[in-house]
Each structure stands twice: as structure tokens, then as C-alpha cells.
Amino acid sequence: AFQELAESIRNWKKFSALNEELELQNRGLLARLSKADVLERENNFLKEALGIKNTMGREVVYAGVYYVNLDPGGYNVLLNKGAEDGIEKNDIVVTEQKELVGVVSDVSGNFSKILFIFDPEFKITARVLGSNTAGIAKGAYKDGMYLDLISKDDELKEQDILVSTGNDIFPPALVVGRVAYVEINESQMFKKVRIEPAIANRRLGSVIVLKRK
What we know:
Elements: H1 2-56, E1 60-71, E2 74-79, E3 92-94, E4 100-107, E5 112-116, E6 123-128, E7 134-139, E8 145-148, E9 161-164, E10 175-183, E11 192-197, E12 206-210
Antiparallel strand pairs: 1-2, 1-12, 2-5, 3-4, 3-12, 4-5, 6-7, 6-9, 7-8, 8-11, 9-10, 10-11
């Protein structure tokens, strides 16, 4: 009986050691998979960013959004890059798909603040993709954005895509968002148009800062 007990203890120790070894191997495998996933994402991001740099002819800075908060004074959105990295006021912030995030409003040494696309102080001239219909898109907090100066005769419908015109500080062809709602009041000269910004349902992380020309 004692020998059987001793043999059971030895077998249990071997089994326990084997389990520990397998657990370590699994952890190592997970670490390698995680690293490979991160590298793939970074490579895809850099490919898209390089495409933006080449097509727009602007220098770019790769950055990350590390803080997004809405307070009574407006949106507080921070980048992890600042003046030390070449960031300047009025630089444009976009995703790797050229979706507009905002514009740099304040710069410190190693971080900067973005005027977010949802903020009421944010505005941009935008037009309907494939059309000459254009207006001024303005931030509207939880409502996304509104497109002003669209007359009753202007052609525009829900789901239309809006892009930047290039008639202001923003370069052309940036994706602003899509038309979410159109209201026509016969007593009013202009339509009421609500926009859902392109980044509305995105979790912001890596972004591209387009340098001023």
C-alpha cells in the first residue's frame, strides 16, 4: 500500500510538472500570437498611412488617441504626440481610411489636443460625393453633425456620403460622414440635415496627423 501511495505521489508530481510546462508553452504561444497580431495591425496601418502620404503629398506623423472625454466645455481629445514630434496647431487628424477625426487645436511638448469633429466649434465645408451639393458641416455633440446651407432644391438624401471640398484648411476627399436624416419644412429656405460622422462607431486608437503645407 505504501509503495502504491509513493507511486501515486510520483505520478502526480510528474503530471503537475507536465501541466506547468504545457501552461508555460500556452502562455508563450499566446504571447507570440498577440505580438504577431499587433505587428500585422501596425503593418496594415502603415501601408494605409503611406498611401495617404503619397496621394495627398503631405508629410504625416503617426500618433495615438489616448484620451476622449466630453465635459461641459466640450470634447477633450488628446494625442500622444506634440511639438517635440513636429505636431503644429491646425494639423489635420484622420484615420488610416481618411476618415476625419478633427484638427489640432493646442500643442504641448509631448502631447496635443484635438478639436473633435463632434464639437460645436468644429466646422468644415463638405459636399455630397458624386454631386455638387455642398454646405457647412458643424459638430453637434450627441447628434453628430449638421449640414447647414442646403436649400430645398439641393439634391441630397439619407445615406449619401459627405467628403471635404478642400475649400478651407482641410484637404479635399476626406470622409466626413453620411447623411443620417433630412427634414424639409416648406416655410424654411433650407433643409435640416443631420450627419453621422464616419468615426461615430469607431474605437479610436492609431491616427494620422496630416501636416500643414
